[in-house]
């Protein structure tokens, strides 16, 4: 093992290295910086002599990265939730620290294997990248998941983007960590194979971008995506309700389109509580103009059961509904024992019911449009599962994805471009365009190659008009989801563990 660093010095270096990774993601896009920051972490990890020191190294880096990348949670909890500033800072810090434990555990596990391995190549190129990726993946599902700014998202427009249809965001994170391992080996005798990988992996990613996994389906449709720009602190105010309803009625009625979509909860009251005649006016416009409407509105199916929904109006009737499946902890459902925390805030939220994981798409002329609501597009494996299920059941397969969001909760912060980047990753994984209708931004059209082809300025009121071509076919990621990168990484580490165990037995 190379000479060890003082644990305190290593942690002092890991803290800024982790925080700087925020600049690898949107809106900054400095993805090479992520490689360098991870290389610093891996350099220190290779010189860390104990499991305890490795744990604190990974925990510090991971917590700093998550904290810097999601600082905007402060805005929702304090500015709009009314939580005291000190308690808000503590809550955001505790969340980052809790999620950082996964990266501490990952580096501790890597340290255990590395202490028993003789090869620097194995340590830097196999053990550390695989453990890092599995920590990212675990963060995506533990306690319902919070995979925001997972490593791979920084590469939605990097040479690694070509791997997205094959191995998804977590597989791309694995490759990004592998590149960091290569950088770590540059001063070592293994620089030649490391340099070869450092060149070959991006070149392969660029080459893969020339493969078209999906193909056009039918004729393009005209779309209008509405952005109301309703201030979050007024959105649920009773005095604002009439204005919001009138605003979206006017925006919808401006002109026809094959598809007109509003943001999440654009109508901020239960559909059953809308003023008399309101839905009838929307139905009448849809029938008269030949437009299909997708309207964000809460729904109730029984007393005390509330759903965050998108209502589809086609042929003059509300004949479709999509109900949000993946709910936000503390925002849309209250974890056991957390009622006291919710009661400290003044956010009009509660326990929502969950929709089914597999829900049908809505036909819009030649295309089939599948909605997802806000936070749901962080979970690429769930969107892939919906597409795969449609293929296997021989039911209409979605050709266009639609995200309706309201992240005005996070103000004018980097959360908006980060969420846009997340949607771009979903288009890369599935080969399908994504439409985004949001309250304050980023309202946009993303094609099946992850390119933003049209967008509205954030914090403006308006309509985004575009022609959108739907796509059909399956990418490998739609078929396999995360099972390929997670399965390979797990198998790799299991094999290394078996080799270590066998070697120790033979030495006895």
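Sequence proposed for the structure above (508 residues):
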């Amino acid at each position: 093992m190379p000479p060890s660093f003082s644990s305190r010095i290593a942690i002092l270096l890991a803290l800024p290295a982790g925080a700087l990774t925020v600049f690898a993601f949107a809106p900054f896009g400095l993805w090479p910086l992520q490689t360098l920051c991870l290389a610093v972490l891996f350099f220190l990890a290779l010189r860390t002599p104990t499991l305890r020191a490795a744990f604190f190294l990974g925990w510090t880096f991971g917590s700093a990265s998550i904290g810097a990348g999601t600082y905007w949670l402060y805005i929702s909890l304090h500015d709009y939730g009314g939580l005291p500033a000190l308690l808000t800072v503590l809550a955001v810090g505790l969340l980052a620290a809790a999620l950082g434990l996964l990266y501490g555990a990952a580096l501790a596990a890597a340290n255990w294997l590395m202490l028993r391995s003789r090869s620097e190549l194995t340590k830097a190129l196999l053990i550390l990248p695989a453990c890092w990726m599995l920590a990212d993946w675990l963060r995506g599902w533990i306690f319902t998941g919070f995979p925001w700014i997972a490593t791979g998202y920084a590469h939605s427009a990097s040479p690694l983007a070509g791997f997205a249809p094959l191995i998804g965001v977590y597989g791309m994170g694995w490759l990004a960590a592998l590149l960091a391992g290569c950088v770590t080996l540059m001063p070592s005798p293994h620089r030649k194979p490391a340099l070869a990988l450092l060149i070959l992996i991006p070149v392969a990613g660029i080459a893969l971008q020339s493969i078209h996994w999906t193909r056009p389906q039918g004729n393009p449709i005209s779309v209008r995506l509405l952005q109301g720009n309703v201030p979050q602190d007024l959105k649920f105010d009773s005095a604002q309700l009439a204005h919001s309803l009138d605003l979206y009625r006017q925006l919808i009625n401006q002109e026809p389109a094959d598809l007109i979509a509003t943001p999440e909860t654009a109508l901020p009251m239960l559909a059953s509580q809308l003023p008399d005649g309101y839905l009838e006016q929307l139905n009448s416009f849809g029938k008269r103009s030949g437009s299909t409407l997708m309207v964000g509105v809460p729904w109730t199916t029984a007393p005390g059961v509330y759903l965050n929904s998108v209502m589809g109006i086609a042929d003059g009737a509300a004949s479709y509904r999509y109900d949000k499946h993946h709910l936000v902890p503390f925002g849309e459902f209250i974890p056991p024992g957390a009622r006291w925390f919710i009661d400290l805030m003044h956010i009009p939220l509660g326990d929502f019911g969950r929709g089914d994981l597999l829900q049908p798409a809505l036909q819009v002329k030649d295309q089939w449009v599948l909605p997802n609501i806000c936070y749901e597009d962080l979970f690429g494996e769930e969107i892939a599962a919906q597409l795969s299920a449609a293929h296997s059941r021989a039911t209409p397969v979605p050709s266009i994805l639609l995200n309706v969001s309201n992240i005005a909760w996070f103000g004018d912060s980097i959360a908006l471009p980060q969420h846009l980047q997340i949607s771009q990753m979903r288009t890369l994984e599935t080969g399908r365009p994504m439409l985004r209708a949001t309250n304050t931004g980023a309202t946009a059209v993303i094609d099946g190659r992850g390119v933003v082809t049209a967008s509205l300025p954030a914090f403006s009121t308006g309509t985004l008009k575009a022609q959108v071509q739907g796509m059909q076919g399956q990418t490998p990621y739609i078929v396999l989801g995360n099972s390929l990168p997670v399965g390979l990484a797990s198998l790799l580490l299991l094999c290394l563990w078996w080799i270590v165990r066998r070697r120790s037995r033979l030495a006895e």
